[in-house]
Design a protein that fits this description.
alpha/beta; 9 strands
Length: 226
């Protein structure tokens, strides 16, 4: 069965990456939630997609006490997801403020999960392959995924398998049925993003993708006949 992941929560109806968006995803019957994690200036794990807040301040330069009220911390976000599978994306880009060459964000996320396990399960993903590698090093049994924009680029699947990750998370626009088949033959799950069109959702499910990340989990569920 293709599962439905609410992209940054039910982000078409509520502000993305907020407790309200995560709670609505639960209410709409999503199978899981995808959210983004960044570090604040004083080391907290804030749930926010962009490197900068709406007022222009970099998340990495703001102490937790000065975060906008709508920006939750990871532990509160996990509670709001209320038993769903949670895909935590580690944001650690060398082109953005707050980049950590030593990948401490991975360390602290794993530490939090060890102290407060998520009932619905967790997948840790990142565009930064080294961050995903660090999670594998710290917690080999924790599912990890590599986020890529173009899954057809040379060597993507081979690198993922060589690094021991569980899943590929590609942008849907370059995904093919053949690549989904190749991934499954190598024991790799495929969750694609970000798909809101019902016809495309049906097509991707027909290819056997394991998960679809969407801003409209209720629309996706209806498209899948659920």
């Amino acid at each position: 069965m293709t599962i439905v992941l609410a992209h940054r929560g039910a982000s078409r109806a509520e502000r993305e990456n907020t407790l309200a968006a995560f709670r609505l995803a639960v209410a709409l019957g999503a199978d899981g939630v995808e959210l983004d994690v960044r570090r604040t200036a004083d080391g907290a794990l804030a749930v926010h997609h962009d490197a900068h807040l709406p007022d222009g301040r970099a998340v990495a330069s703001v102490p937790v006490a000065q975060l906008p009220v709508h920006v939750p911390l990871l532990d509160a976000a996990l509670t709001a997801c209320d038993g769903l599978l949670v895909n935590i994306e580690l944001k650690n880009d060398e082109r953005e403020p707050g980049f950590e060459p030593e990948r401490r964000l991975a360390d602290d996320t794993v530490r939090l999960l060890r102290s407060a396990p998520v009932p619905g399960g967790v997948v840790i993903s990142s565009f930064d392959l080294v961050s995903a590698d660090r999670v594998r090093e710290l917690e080999p049994d924790l599912p990890t995924a590599w986020l890529v924009r173009d899954a057809t680029a040379a060597g993507v699947l081979e690198r993922l398998v060589a690094h021991g990750h569980h899943a590929l998370h590609p942008g849907h626009w370059r995904l093919t049925a053949g690549l989904v088949r190749d991934c499954h033959e190598r024991g790799v799950r495929v969750t694609t993003w970000t798909v809101d069109d019902p016809d495309r959702i049906v097509e991707l499910a027909g290819w056997g993708v394991d998960g679809i990340c969407t801003n409209v989990p209720d629309v996706a569920r209806r498209a899948l006949g659920r």
